[in-house]
Amino acid sequence: MEYNDQMKNRVKRMEGQLRGILKMMEEGKDCKEVITQLSAVRSAVDRTIGVIVSSNLVECVQEAEQNGVKTDELIKEAVNLLVKSR
Question: Which Gene3D superfamilies does UniProt cross-reference here (predicted)?
Fold first, then answer.
């Protein structure tokens, strides 16, 4: 799978958010603020997983169809990846 710049930028943004959260903790910021930021990172991770799995699924299904392979198992595997990530 090829990871495009948009996917990589999502991860870089999350990295920045996590560094910011660590700084907030070191500065003794209010726990509500820290939790809010942690929740935002968790949502960003979930969205990024969805983007990667869906992109991969599209590529795999298209390739399988071109090669005359059934796509049922590929779809089940993608759904399982999404379920495990939750």
Answer: Metal-sensitive repressor, helix protomer (1.20.58.1000)
DSSP state of 27: T
Distances 39 to 15, 28, 66, 83 between C-alpha atoms, Å? 14, 18, 41, 19
Question: How many Å apart are CA 62 and CA 55, to the nearest integer?
Answer: 11
Torsion, Cα of 9, 50, 4, 60 (10° steps):
170
The string of pLDDT tens digits covering residues 41-69 is 999 999 998 888 888 777 877 888 888 87
pTM of the prediction? 0.75
